[in-house]
Amino acid sequence: MANRNKQQLFDHYRKSAAVAGMSHPEGSLTCPLCWEPASFDTLSVEHIIPGSVGGNRIVLTCTTCNNTHGSLYDSHLSQFQKTKDGFNGQGTLPVILEVLGKRVTANIEWGDGFKNINIVGEASNPAEVAAMQADAEAGRFGELNLTINYGYIKNRFQTGLLRCAYLSLYKCFGYEYACTEIVQVLRRRICDMNQETPRLGSFIGAFRNGAVPYSDPYFIVPGNVNGVQFFMVAIRLKKQTESYHFVYMPAPCDRSDEFFEMMERCPRDNDGATLTIPHQLVFT
Ligand SMILES: [Zn+2]
């Protein structure tokens, strides 16, 4: 089954590459991420949105990108949603607990109106645990300081979302979309974490109210502001709970070189509070 999927995707993207005017040696394909040629054997099936956060659609990437991006980005998407779950009362949040100068590692359960704090003995200094117990037994109470370990890095998390959005558009529109210069700027941004532009915060954000009229892991809405065309890719991250995020992506057009400038100008309008998603013209 997996091999049949892989062969079907391979044949599909070979045709897509031909339509885009790209030439490939027989039996190979350009990896949509690193843009290097890869033979059939070195290509692997990759989730557009990681399976750990509810993704189920697939594309082909080279094995190197598949392996490295898992830990570089996918784990940060997963950890983000795990933290969200914790805040929504599902599962625990890892914290550093500090009382009267003693520090231990703990897990907290964030419930409705209560918090359970469990000290993780094996992750803490035994002397600090004992000293904290001695304080409690002697009735010495102090202010409780909690430092929550979110466990994800914002830049990696946002790059992970950008990668999901890029691959979803590649899935939909193939190489004709991916090979355009404006889109290549973003592809290079995904593959090189040292790049600081374009600034991810200007076109990536979260839907604050969470209600989205679709149940797909992602969907794509085309839009246009003053003649500059774009796609909004909505991405669902799902573990015990769900969160929705958006990534604005350029749509190749005469004025697409204005896209990043436009994104820098209007992030304040994209606060997710009043965005209306049209029911027509949605691609998944
Ligand atoms: Zn690659």
Automatic annotation (TrEMBL):
- Which Pfam families is this protein grouped with? HNH_5
InterPro entries from the xrefs? Answer: HNH_5, HNH_nuc
Which stretches make up the HNH endonuclease domain?
31-79
Highest taxon listed in the record's lineage: Bacteria
Name of the featured protein? HNH endonuclease 5 domain-containing protein
The organism of origin for this protein: Aporhodopirellula rubra
